[in-house]
Amino acid sequence: MDEKALSQLLKQVKGGQVSVDDAVGRLKDLPFAELGYATVDTHRSLRFGFPEVVLGGPKTVEQLLGIVGTLVERKQTVLVTRLQQEKAEALLARFPKGEYHPVARIFHIKQGKRKAGRVAVVTAGTSDIPVAEEAALTAEAMGAEVRRVYDVGVAGIHRLLRRREEIQDCHAAVVVAGMEGALPGVVGGLVGIPVVAVPTSVGYGANMQGVSALLTMVNSCASNVAVVNIDNGFGGGFYATLISRTKGRR
Amino acid sequence: MDEKALSQLLKQVKGGQVSVDDAVGRLKDLPFAELGYATVDTHRSLRFGFPEVVLGGPKTVEQLLGIVGTLVERKQTVLVTRLQQEKAEALLARFPKGEYHPVARIFHIKQGKRKAGRVAVVTAGTSDIPVAEEAALTAEAMGAEVRRVYDVGVAGIHRLLRRREEIQDCHAAVVVAGMEGALPGVVGGLVGIPVVAVPTSVGYGANMQGVSALLTMVNSCASNVAVVNIDNGFGGGFYATLISRTKGRR
Amino acid sequence: MDEKALSQLLKQVKGGQVSVDDAVGRLKDLPFAELGYATVDTHRSLRFGFPEVVLGGPKTVEQLLGIVGTLVERKQTVLVTRLQQEKAEALLARFPKGEYHPVARIFHIKQGKRKAGRVAVVTAGTSDIPVAEEAALTAEAMGAEVRRVYDVGVAGIHRLLRRREEIQDCHAAVVVAGMEGALPGVVGGLVGIPVVAVPTSVGYGANMQGVSALLTMVNSCASNVAVVNIDNGFGGGFYATLISRTKGRR
Amino acid sequence: MDEKALSQLLKQVKGGQVSVDDAVGRLKDLPFAELGYATVDTHRSLRFGFPEVVLGGPKTVEQLLGIVGTLVERKQTVLVTRLQQEKAEALLARFPKGEYHPVARIFHIKQGKRKAGRVAVVTAGTSDIPVAEEAALTAEAMGAEVRRVYDVGVAGIHRLLRRREEIQDCHAAVVVAGMEGALPGVVGGLVGIPVVAVPTSVGYGANMQGVSALLTMVNSCASNVAVVNIDNGFGGGFYATLISRTKGRR
Amino acid sequence: MDEKALSQLLKQVKGGQVSVDDAVGRLKDLPFAELGYATVDTHRSLRFGFPEVVLGGPKTVEQLLGIVGTLVERKQTVLVTRLQQEKAEALLARFPKGEYHPVARIFHIKQGKRKAGRVAVVTAGTSDIPVAEEAALTAEAMGAEVRRVYDVGVAGIHRLLRRREEIQDCHAAVVVAGMEGALPGVVGGLVGIPVVAVPTSVGYGANMQGVSALLTMVNSCASNVAVVNIDNGFGGGFYATLISRTKGRR
Amino acid sequence: MDEKALSQLLKQVKGGQVSVDDAVGRLKDLPFAELGYATVDTHRSLRFGFPEVVLGGPKTVEQLLGIVGTLVERKQTVLVTRLQQEKAEALLARFPKGEYHPVARIFHIKQGKRKAGRVAVVTAGTSDIPVAEEAALTAEAMGAEVRRVYDVGVAGIHRLLRRREEIQDCHAAVVVAGMEGALPGVVGGLVGIPVVAVPTSVGYGANMQGVSALLTMVNSCASNVAVVNIDNGFGGGFYATLISRTKGRR
Amino acid sequence: MDEKALSQLLKQVKGGQVSVDDAVGRLKDLPFAELGYATVDTHRSLRFGFPEVVLGGPKTVEQLLGIVGTLVERKQTVLVTRLQQEKAEALLARFPKGEYHPVARIFHIKQGKRKAGRVAVVTAGTSDIPVAEEAALTAEAMGAEVRRVYDVGVAGIHRLLRRREEIQDCHAAVVVAGMEGALPGVVGGLVGIPVVAVPTSVGYGANMQGVSALLTMVNSCASNVAVVNIDNGFGGGFYATLISRTKGRR
Amino acid sequence: MDEKALSQLLKQVKGGQVSVDDAVGRLKDLPFAELGYATVDTHRSLRFGFPEVVLGGPKTVEQLLGIVGTLVERKQTVLVTRLQQEKAEALLARFPKGEYHPVARIFHIKQGKRKAGRVAVVTAGTSDIPVAEEAALTAEAMGAEVRRVYDVGVAGIHRLLRRREEIQDCHAAVVVAGMEGALPGVVGGLVGIPVVAVPTSVGYGANMQGVSALLTMVNSCASNVAVVNIDNGFGGGFYATLISRTKGRR
């Protein structure tokens, strides 16, 4: 049942051709009926206050040009993740207002103004920076003020200690770490804000492409640590920014 | 170096017995030095606005009476988790103002008044309720208003749909699920708030004591889902309440 | 919005107090609104032609007496699975028309008459029989004619060969096997009907509580084999009976 | 012992050169004896009503030309799966009546007319479509009427809800999902037909090349879900079509 | 079709009531037909020269008394494995000629005389002895001469070296080891006979109930090592004795 | 202590320069002393009756030319496994009497005459043939008479049944299978000889590069099955031939 | 060949009854020959400067009384690990000079005087103390001076920081941690001495009985961390003490 | 708070502008305050007596030229690990005093003189040599005297026995092994020094990229074995050298 049919039914109720009881009977099943007018994008945008993010990696240049074009027309912010260099160039040629960040592999066109809180993005080592930048740029695109605290892994804990206040002062922290993945638990013990842990596949051997780091983080004894998927910088940045915006909702 | 020694050194600087340069040299190492006056509880309490929670399961009755007694004297809220019935009875005999919740295995003494936001606690099945109650009671102890939305698993999705608004209206949701663990991803797709996913060990066979549910949740394609350890109801409730309080921090 | 409110709205449309357009606007959101009158049991029964099965294991005697009583009043067939002996005795005392099958741990009260097709239940060894009986009794409760072909494991393949026709003549086969779990693939190669493979936790060592058998079955090179969870005899019997009834739907 | 030798023996029995007892002795071992006239293809075709499907990937062009040629001569339907583009071109040059579907990597020559029931093919995301198309084209080649319901993953559950009836009206559904793999359980809860779940290797990190999705599906709490191997679109389509044809067998 | 029916058919061929062609047609399907006279035990005994071994653990005393009684009547050797003490006592009361070995949990009644070759049974530690004794007593029951070389693990390799000749002089060696499971590879490097490796669940932590030892043995760089299941002493003894008897077959 | 030093010591004992007690003292430590004259190759050849096999894959052409040259000079049989085509050509140019088998990737120079028993090499599918040929050619190089029984997987069990006798008549069987890995257990149930199971990495998805097939084989309920590493055709052929030669040792 | 036989042979060489060449031939094989006089204890004791430690758990009281009695007679230090309370009492009754430590489950009789270096034993939480005490008492029994630094886990890192110097001043540190297992890497980053990491099975859910903690430690990015088995406190204490004694060896 | 600010505060205390109590208050938080002057390199060098090692693999040539240049200026020893050939050539062109070892992929510039103990580096096979050389060159760069004992795997144990003394005479041994990973346990049983086990990813099939070897080593029953990550030759060499230098610390 689409909007037209619904309107039709209501007119028949109004005109007396269909009784109220019959109409109730047919509308009861609406949850499972064809709606037609519903669209993913609109609902999502309403729910999160941010348009659907485009996963660029597996899409063709043609598909990307189409999707981005539609979003630009609707004056919506554009965020394309995991985008390869060559596809980015095609997008930049068509949409010169966009920016491409090769380390984070993110393409971004700012439209309108968004506002979120302060998000710290912390990494254990320099090899974790691509994932961290994916988180940081996502957060910035969503309106957050991002503080980057990079290369403060647990093998030299004092590097982290000197920057504790900077992190504590944020609304949430994304902590990115590969190998042993111990950093989020240590940060969680030092600060009183929610920590979103992002394991990375950086490492070798018993690291098993990040599974070891994931397990470490899930087992963290700090109660303010929750975990997203391996290498999921976008998810980490999104989740932390969502937390930082909780304020606006009350 | 404890507080007394520090005071002593500063007096010597003041009196000229120790030069400023010498004092700098000795204080440079302070981060790694014995402080003496630092205590875990105090710092933790300052950072999170909530005193350290006591894991009751492995402790003896004597240890528990001691710890709880100290907290009560300091007028701090008491929360003991994973507490067995027989130990709870010993605590209730000594501290009649406390309450014991046998399903959640939580002992609680309210002191003072705390304030946090609204937290939804959602479960897939009735077997997940003990873990969910651990989350709910933790959140309530921390001052949150909790909405319980139980037994709305994905095998009958309309049960969840009718309660969507109730969840959406909270600041964060704890979603508890065993077996296939699909519920947090579905809730994440329906609401625009941070979802804290808690896998449970409910299930059998290929569930592998909750590892399967954990993997499902970590792989969720909804961006507003982060995960804590299997059966960690306390962690889920703590994290969601922390999010709900973020408002207060700005 | 519950049925009463819906009826109220429609009356207002009929009476002209609410315009058709306004009513469309409010009904558009119905998919996510509170329905109130929806109940799990009824819908499930309509969808599958069989009432919801009760998982007996974790429920108390009181809960079971209540649930079974309700179903009996509504003249619905009762099927309680994984039911312990002592709880079964309490049910039998109250509902003397019921039957309890201790090997399969199933309690059953037949009401009305159901009709489904022919289902073969095949096991590799005698230790797999409890799981197989759970499948067989489920299928019988759903109206299927069940053929039991037990103890025909691959270590003595001719035992299976002599009974091939008996299996082939069914609409679907449930094949139950532990240890190496090879039987479903062999049966799948011999007969031209859908095979539902049920791995069991029978075995030891590298069997890893049935995970090894599960993997074997998932990797089967026979195209007419699909798999359910370890020890899930109920699921296997349910699925095969569903297939055997497909006929009635066209 | 082949057919000729068997005939010879029987003639000797008839002529009295071999006694009945001696013949019984020799025929007792027949189950394990060389038969000679048996051929895989024929038997399979008889059992399933569909000729053996050719796995194209690892075969050379020469082998494929030979096998397809033989099938064409015998007026049998041809279905080659996992076929690379360049090999497909060689087949098309020789057999211009064939069709090649590059997304599903299937080569197909229709011969005669087959009849099966209605099969829904459902996917969570667009990246699952290659596996879904392998299922859909297999089902069509076997005579099924296929309904494609693509991109209705659980992160936006209303997309699925509006198409529920379309799926419910089929005899069986193939549900294809990667990442968290939650879709088959949700579909299973919505419809009353057998669901064949196909996990895909789409995803990253803790998805572990589809193992995580496989585990989710095996643990589904919906009783009408059974599972085949990761990325096994062919198997899913074959199994669902087999179910849809069950009618013909009674 | 059983022996009687087969005889009947042949008589009809002889008498001309059934033509040779018709008889060929009916006998062609014999491989998949009901044979009736075939029995597992007899065939097995013929194939291996040893009657079927009875797995005692999951059987009831009544079942065991019945099975053992039948074997004794037929003058066959009896071997019951994994038999609990209390069931063994019931068997000994009825069959006083039997022997029970509590460490290996084997019950044995010798009947007739068997002959096999020399088998070494080697263990890493004293905790592996129950599994080793299961192997040794199985081999002895099958007629092998067994040499026990116990407690010669790799942490004190010279203990093994002094007994090398004793092992080398056998036809096959069963090497039983838990924890790291390194012994079979070391023995394989020292002797020129087939080594049957039996991992045990002895150990703790990363041993994972013997899985670690199993992996070690499967990865052995010695080419004369093959592996059976964890704790499968019976299988190890059976396989090694089979090798030792190979001589008789040529 | 090398041979010369030992001889020297004994001469001193003989001549009275060293007392018997002193010599006993020094010789007691001999187990851990330098032997010097021991060489790997010679001993291995003596132990197994077959010279050390050369793993060709990781070695350079220069290394291979050197090693093979030495073996040829000593009139020893040459067997190089896992040898790439281009390296094989360099070996053939220098040693024209050698043969290279590209499917099995084995290079072989026959020298002298070896004698072993009959070995069956059985495969489930055609994709398993490279591993099977590695086994078969190894067995032939060691003097065995090999019977190839290929493409008799469990999805069409009658293909295997017609060739049972052929396998039964051998001294040992190497059974090679990927995917579900069920064939070795089925063959083990049909024949009364030792079966050496070789899992292969053929398959996809839940096969996990052969780990699933390995687990199936280790869990086989047939007692005459032992297992070697995934894709270890050489090991399977070596072990089976060793069994077939056991005769010669008594 | 035992010591007597060796002495006999040398006398024959001296007396000329056996030629030097013949004697060389017989002695060449000595490493692999039966020596008779060799005993594990003696050699081990020579190698490590510490007698073999007795694993008490699986041994009977009779076996333990025998072994300990022998060691006491030889005036050797006695160390029995994983000893149950009731067995300990039997040992104390016979050997009143011994001590039993119920938390560490160690029985110890001091004999003679040993000297080793300084060993720190560090734990993350109080639940790790039993394993830590096993390490500490082992180290003390071997002559080390032990410094216990307990309950300094990463969730409150400053507790560890104030005790850094105490650890740094030792020759080696045993760091014991369950759950996420991050502590050894953090300690490794703070001090310049070898760290022996001992994972414990303390934790739940994704901890998987300590496997998660083990993986964390193996992946540590601190280069001065090496790992022993889960819950292997004895091994950790032994290894660290061995390091602390290295000094004496130069 | 950096050094300048600290100095400033102390001057104010001295001058009376700040009271002692106020200064104590501000310095109490120092553990978590900004230090500023601390640098990783210096501290690390002080703690271990060896400058930070540079992981060359993921760095660009420009980054490497910069880092190495700085170290050379400061007259510090340079050690770059996992360095590709082409980057090494760029470094050699600029720093002709450096050496590049292509097998171990290490670049090294010796500056000053270091002194450590004796370290044995032992390998099972020739394929393990790259990892072993990484260990050996690291140890030599740190001042150790290295003894290489290569290709002494357990499949030919006498090769190892002849070299036992050579290993025993060192302060620590690095034992490198892939496939089954049994060598460290065997070496541990033969010598009385700490053994650092390095599993390698050499092998195939059930080796699972070295995980199997890692598990073997962690389960070793020799108490003088501790383990580092798969293929971590650098870590093994570093740890063993640290042990060998323990002497210098007392």
TrEMBL record, chains A, B, C, D, E, F, G, H:
Residue stretches making up the PurE domain? 117-249
- What GO terms are given for molecular function? hydrolase activity
Coiled coil, from the record: none
Q: Name one Pfam family in it.
A: AIRC
Any one biological process term the GO annotation gives: 'de novo' IMP biosynthetic process
PANTHER family according to UniProt: PHOSPHORIBOSYLAMINOIMIDAZOLE CARBOXYLASE-RELATED, SLL1489 PROTEIN
The protein's matches in NCBIfam families, at most eight in alphabetical order, are given as: LarB
UniProt protein name: Circadian phase modifier
